[in-house]
Design a protein that fits this description.
Elements (H helix, E strand, L loop, with lengths): L2 H10 L9 H10 L3 H8 L12 H17 L19 E2 L2 H15 L3 E6 L3 E6 L7 E6 L6 E7 L15 H7 L1 H6 L5 H12 L5 H16 L2 H5 L2 H11 L4 E6 L13 E7 L1 H10 L15
Antiparallel strand pairs: 1-5, 2-3, 3-4, 4-5, 6-7
Helix pairs in contact: 6-9
């Protein structure tokens, strides 16, 4: 051993440690507990394999199992709604989201399906053909608002088809609303071919115009809804530009018996700033209509 090793040994020795001798070490090894004894000492009363004494105990055990199972489930990401990937025990926020994800899933695969059962707490869909076993059943979890896929028979025997009833005007107008918002005058034939190319399906001209009409209604709202906002519009004018003239005229005897609303006829508006600018900036004049003047 070199001098450097001796120095390192002296530096690492604990000078406060005490040596009790060989006999003390032998007695410690003799009284040392075995591995089995140590395991028995670590067992807690609730860890013993004892059968539940009542139904409430069974419910408690089942609740813990459900919580463990739910924590291991995949939660659906709404960002993947256009190209969803479904799996057993997947969780959704509401029934509507689950239905839309299933619809988009089957459209992407080119295999139609039909919803045989749907209400506020459950959803069942199966293959459109009675000869195939593809099936999804989803339902709300007890005591929670989330929806879970509880049954998923993902056996694909139905072949790809371009004639998919799931691709209807309602589905298209919901998916392509932003397209109509940015380009309201898009060519209908071009749009129809775009839908068919994107979704690999057939889409008729009648469905195309119906989808555009529904999309524009979503973007601009219905005429009835717009007329109902005139009262709020008049109030905002009086609030932002006081002393403005605004007069609303309705059709006489046009009050609806069901809604108690009158039919709009015309609206006159003159902002106070326009009136003051005319009075201050224009010189007085007298206008004469020469149509009814007589004489030379």
């Amino acid at each position: 051993m070199t001098n450097s090793d001796d120095n390192e040994l002296h530096d690492n020795v604990d000078k406060n440690a005490k040596w009790f001798g060989v006999e003390h070490y032998k007695n410690f090894q003799k009284n040392k507990p075995t591995e089995i004894e140590r395991d028995d000492n670590l067992v807690m009363p609730e860890d013993n394999d004892v059968a539940p004494s009542s139904e409430s105990d069974f419910e408690t055990v089942n609740e813990h199992d459900d919580e463990k199972t739910n924590n291991e489930c995949t939660v659906f990401n709404p960002k993947d709604i256009d190209n969803p990937k479904l799996e057993l025990k997947m969780l959704f926020s509401i029934i509507k989201e689950c239905k839309l994800a299933i619809t988009n899933y089957r459209i992407r695969q080119g295999r139609p399906c039909k919803f045989v059962k749907q209400d506020k707490i459950r959803l069942r869909t199966k293959c459109r053909s009675e000869w195939y076993d593809w099936l999804i059943y989803a339902g709300k979890l007890s005591g929670k608002s989330s929806v879970q896929i509880k049954t998923f028979e993902n056996t694909h025997k139905y072949g790809f088809t371009y004639d998919n009833p799931l691709v209807n005007s309602e589905w298209v107008d919901r998916k392509y609303t932003e397209e109509f918002r940015t380009n309201p005058k898009v060519d209908m034939e071009y749009f129809r071919k775009t839908v068919m190319k994107d979704n690999k399906c057939f889409f008729s001209k009648k469905q195309t115009y119906r989808a555009r009409r529904k999309s524009m209604k979503i973007i601009h709202g219905s005429e009835t809804d717009q007329y109902s906002k005139l009262g709020a519009y008049m109030h905002e004018i009086q609030k932002s530009n006081p002393e403005s003239s605004i007069i609303l005229k309705t059709v006489d005897r046009s009050t609806s018996t069901s809604t108690q609303q009158q039919r709009f006829q015309r609206l006159y508006t003159c902002f106070n700033g326009v009136k003051q600018g005319f009075l201050v900036g224009c010189r007085p004049l007298i206008g004469v209509d020469g149509t009814f003047l007589k004489g030379s």
